[in-house]
Structures are given as structure tokens and as C-alpha cells.
Amino acid sequence: MASKTPNDDTPKTDNVNVSGKANGSSGANGTANGIALENSGEGSDDDPDEHIIETTAGADEAGAKKKKNKKKKPKKKKKAPTAQTDPPSVLMSQLFPNNTYPKGEEVEYKNENLYRTTDEEKRHLDNMNSDFLSDYRQAAETHRQVRQWAQKNIMPGQTLTDIANGIEDSVRRLVGHDGLTEGDAMNAGMGFPTGLNLDEIAAHFSPNAGNKTVLQYSNVMKVDIGVHVNGRIVDSAFTMSFDPMYDNLLAAVKDATNTGVREAGIDVRLGELGGLIQETMESYECEINGTTYPIKPIRNLAGHNILPYSIHGTKSVPLVKTNDTTKMEEGDVFAIETFGTTGTGHVDDRGEISHYALRKDAPEVDLRLSSAKSLLKTIQKNFGTIPFCRRYLDRLGQEKYLLGLNNLVKSGIVEDYPPLYDKKGSYTAQFEHTILLRPTVKEVISRGDDY
């Protein structure tokens, strides 16, 4: 989820700690007992009927004994699933029992930080973070499986609403939290609303109820997905296009993101990292409908660090060279995201709003509107500081909430995030990965075979 550069009004947030886990198992055994019937009686040997009765009784007794001695085969235990379904529905905890979730791409630190790879003290610190890493790796593997399914199945002709619901429902199934009971979405689920940003829209668009926009062959769509487990948010995005005319635009932005990921590390200065991203991005150009466009970084967007239950932390990763001397530090989690455009390289707030988030530093306000008071409680209990959208309120059965929501925004309690547009007729692209600056290595937690 994109962050505006530090000179805008994007709120800063602090750590909030909430957690919840659930495990369960079941089994079944079955037994069967035979029932023996005995017949006895006295009579003359000359009575033919008595002989018949005795013979029948003997046969029944033998049959009963045979049934009694026959052992019922034990029921075979159902094997745990070993592969994901299409669409994704198998819990991550079943595919990877005992928290054995796959690691991301581990990269050794360079230069003066190379010692960290084998330093015993750093290794000890790393080992103390087992819950942190387990949560992050579960969220990351969920992200990989859902986005790879989406990449195979998203096609022109689908509505943006269907695409968003398909992605979000899959995430909720895999983490085992549908978010429909009070507080359930705080345990695991969506880290923020799924962004489906077409063409000149760079970020922060998700369809509201009633939106009938249909994906076209000519569109360039940024798909921005956030997944969290116990507040550990994986933020990773990719761009889809169906016309090869846009290939160079996508290649430029992917290369710029990979440059940022490769060069990021402990003690790296953020302003210098932005310069490396800019240099890579601007080395590309793209020909669209006979006109050649230089690929520009969007200067007023940035990557960002991530805090527990808070997608935007206090540090920004610029897409151009700046004088920011802030350093990346051990333990930081960063979303390295880059945006390229054929337009002006600057985006503005515009259009219908879908994204919102409760501000951690919200002022104490005496709310007089009853709908605002009620809605605030719903937001606090179900999302906390995790961003949400109108569709998420619809799922919870909220009705006629827009007046109350706008009142919360005006009161400074909830922050709204309007869609971000470059000039009409331009095309934008985005790629993004989440990295963990662990004590021993840099882990590109969201890396996959796809990008």
C-alpha cells in the first residue's frame, strides 16, 4: 500500500500489539460386535421336525460365531492435504504443520555488516524471534499462493469487484479467519484493502459496493495485496497487462524494485537508496501507440517501514535521490515499492474514496453523531489501526454508515486515503516486496517464483 512522501499529511503510527491463534484436531474410532443366537430343546429322535430344528440351530450358531470372529477393518485416517486447491481454500496450517512455513529469500549483508551472518550474538537474537518469523512467513506464503492464483485467473471481462472479492476471500480462507465475528479480522486476514488500480491510477483504489468497472484488454492494472497474521503485515504488489505494448513499462518498475530490494540493508541511508531506484527506473523508455515515453518515477510516492498493525511507519523509502540521511536499522521491516509512469511523475488525490484507517494518534473528540459513535466502536473492535474499506463494513452488516464515516474523518479520528492519479491518458506500474532486516540476514519475505 503506497505511502505519500514525508511532506504530505500521511499520519505516523505507533506499535499496537494484539495477537490470537487457534489450533484444533479431531479423530474417530469405530467397533462392531456380533450377536449370537442360541436354540435348545428336548424331543424324540423319531420326530423329523426336531431334527430339522437342531440342524438349523447349529447352522445359525456357526454363522454367528463366524460373524463374531470377523474383525472390522480400522478406518483409514484422512491424509492431511499436501497441495493447494483452485481457488485456494486449504489452510496454511494444514499445508505446513508445526509452523514449518517456507522462508523468504535470505540475502547475506554486505561490507561492514557481513560479520552478522555468523556472529553468535546475532544468531541468538535471531532465534528469539521465532513467533515473529512464523507469523511473517505464514502471511507471506498466503500472499504467494493467492497472488499466483490471481495471476493465472484474472482476465479481461471480469469486474473489479469480483477480482477483489476473489483475492480477499482466498486470503481469509487460507489463514482461517473470515473476519465476520467481532475481532476476528484482528487475528489474521487482510492487511489492507486490495488495490486494483487501472492505468493512470497509481494507488489506493478498491471498488466500493455497486462499482461495475470491467477489466479491459488495454488496461494496465496494479494489484496491491496486504496479508497479516497477528498484525505482521506483508505488503507486496505486482502489475498486470495483456497487451505486450506495455512490457517495457512493467520491466522498468520491476527492475527498480529489485534494485531497491538488493541495495537495502542495515545502515543504508534512505535518500541514497532512492537515488539508486531512480537511476534504474530512468534507464528505460516505452513505446505506446507509436509514441516513445521515458519512464519516470512517481516522485511524491514512496516505500515505507511497517509496524505491528500499522502499514505506514515513520520511515519512507523515496523513489528519487533526496537528502534524507535516515538509516535502515536492525529489526526494521520495509515495503520496498516503486511506481513508474509515462505521465508527469506526480500524483494527485482524486475520485471516490474506498480506503480508510483509524489513526493511532487520534484526538479525543466529543462525537455528537450517534452513527459516528457506533461506527467508531465497530472499527476499533474489528480493524484497530489496520486499513479497511467500505466493502469490509458492508460484510459486517453495517448500513447507512457514510455520514458517520465522514464525520469520523472530519474529526481527525479516521484517516481517508483517496485514489492517487497521474494525468489522464498516462500509464503507471507498481512492483513491491516486503523485507525483514533480521540480525543475521536480510529476508525478502514476499519473494516468489513469479517475481
Automatic annotation (TrEMBL):
Its cofactor is Mn(2+); Fe(2+); Co(2+); Zn(2+). It is found in: Cytoplasm. Keywords: Aminopeptidase, Cytoplasm, Hydrolase, Metal-binding, Protease. Pfam families: Peptidase_M24. Binds 2 divalent metal cations per subunit. Has a high-affinity and a low affinity metal-binding site. The true nature of the physiological cofactor is under debate. The enzyme is active with cobalt, zinc, manganese or divalent iron ions. Most likely, methionine aminopeptidases function as mononuclear Fe(2+)-metalloproteases under physiological conditions, and the catalytically relevant metal-binding site has been assigned to the histidine-containing high-affinity site. Residues 1-12 have a biased composition (Basic and acidic residues). Residues 136-343 form the Peptidase M24 domain. Residues 15-34 have a biased composition (Low complexity). Residues 1-103 are annotated as: Disordered. The keyword tRNA processing does not apply. Its EC number is 3.4.11.18. GO terms for biological process: proteolysis. GO terms for cellular component: cytoplasm. Cotranslationally removes the N-terminal methionine from nascent proteins. The N-terminal methionine is often cleaved when the second residue in the primary sequence is small and uncharged (Met-Ala-, Cys, Gly, Pro, Ser, Thr, or Val). PANTHER family: METHIONINE AMINOPEPTIDASE 2. This is Methionine aminopeptidase 2.
